[in-house]
Amino acid sequence: MPDAGTDVLPAIPYTIALYLRISHEDGRGESNSITNQRDMIRAYIAGRREFENAAISEYVDDGESGESMDRRDYRRLMTDVERGAVDCIVVKDLSRIGRVMLDVDDILMNYLVTRGVRFIAINDGYDSFKHSLSNLELAMINLVNQHYNRDLAQKSITARLVKMKRGECLYLAPFGYKKSGTEKNRLVPDDEAAGYVRLMFSLACEGRRPVEIAQMLNAQGVPSPSVYKSGNGCKNIWTQAVDPDFCFWTNYAVRKIIMNEVYLGKAISNRLRVIEPGTGKTTPRPRKEWIIVDGAHEALVSETDFKKAQLVLPRKRCGDAPGHIFGNKVKCPTCGHAMVHYTKSNPRFKCGTVKFTAHYGCRTHTVLQSDLEKIVLTSVRALVSELIDREELELSALKRAANEKTELAGRIKTEENAVRLLEESIAKNFTALVSGKLSKDAFVKKKEIINGAITQKNAALETLRGRLCELTTGRDDVEGRLAELRLLLTVDRVDRALVDLTIDKILVHGERDIEIVWADGWDGETVKKRLKPSKF
After folding, report:
1. Whole-structure pTM over 0.70, yes or no?
2. d(CA 194, CA 177)
3. Are 19 and 86 in contact (CB under 8 A)?
């Protein structure tokens, strides 16, 4: 660490950003705590005369991994840097910014340098304005941090598996339970919610189907799991898109509870596999990979009643199967929910919300799947044809610009020759200076004039090269898009890939009124169609 009080830079007003970060894996030890980082950085600043009148702001990411750069306060810091509100960033060490070598290198060597922002990592002795590390030293520090991050992640996974096998609950307590106030990660019944769970199992044992149970719960004003947990102080609870303050019971929610073996007193973990770290994307694991611990907490239902309740569950659930071509795309515009897909006869979509609540005022409108497929195929072809026309016009314009490319190439060559001659003139003037034919003052004056001319020429070259690059790459891009669009015109049926590629959602306003909203990147007009009457 550089010695305090020995700085010789003049006192200047700084806006200093303190960036503090700790991940769950780093633990809460004194060496890494947010409080310790804050005290260390403030002591460092207080001991330097140059920072006497500095304005200080804090950016804190508590519980955020250094492997991902997608952190709330880190993003806020970079936004402030972008708008020029930060002059200097101070951290405890480089690993606080991140543990991925390429990301940290890019921040320090490119992003902050080009914006004139000073960066100080106290423990690493790094100050981009005074005591900068060599590229090799910086790379070594980043490499160690990246290796440490992988090692830490592996230790964290091992520790979690040990806890899972002990029957500890490492996730949000399921409806009907809460975390024990005395025993960490242990579930105990939540008296009120546990009563609702027992009621559901009791009704199921009487032969009530999930739809009926959901309707009864809504009629009695029983709060849904998200409403209940939100009311009890839980954060990051899922809410409705249309009306965040209102939630209701559905047959799916009831079915999920009745099928959950956690109510038998079992701790069930390791049910999901992470697809890509840092994205939150997961996929279900096969049951044989689950970690199940019997008797981990108090059961809310007996084994006999649990088995009896399973008998009311339908063998095949009506709904939006993930593999369906319109899965989660066909929406009711009134409540915002995905419409239910019925397949028994004439596959069709119908809003299911109206069965459970009148809160939104949804209508019982229905649309045939076959009608949707026809409309989607026709609309996609029309949109693709329109986009092809646009791209062909742009390609024609780029082809006409071929003469401009030739002219640009010639101008670039001329400007490059001019820069070369100017640089040679500086060398000639230096030779004249050494031989005594040119005075020092005359040499300096000539050099300033020539350097100014070189700067202007280089700026012009950059503009010309940028324009030439636009013309060259632009044509390749347009031709590539045209090839992809023409391939879409050959599609003769609707499949899931086509729907995901082109459609954001399909809104069913009435039995024969539908609206197609295109996905991002497909800048066609929203399509509204009126279908001919159909018999169901």
Report:
1. no
2. 7
3. no
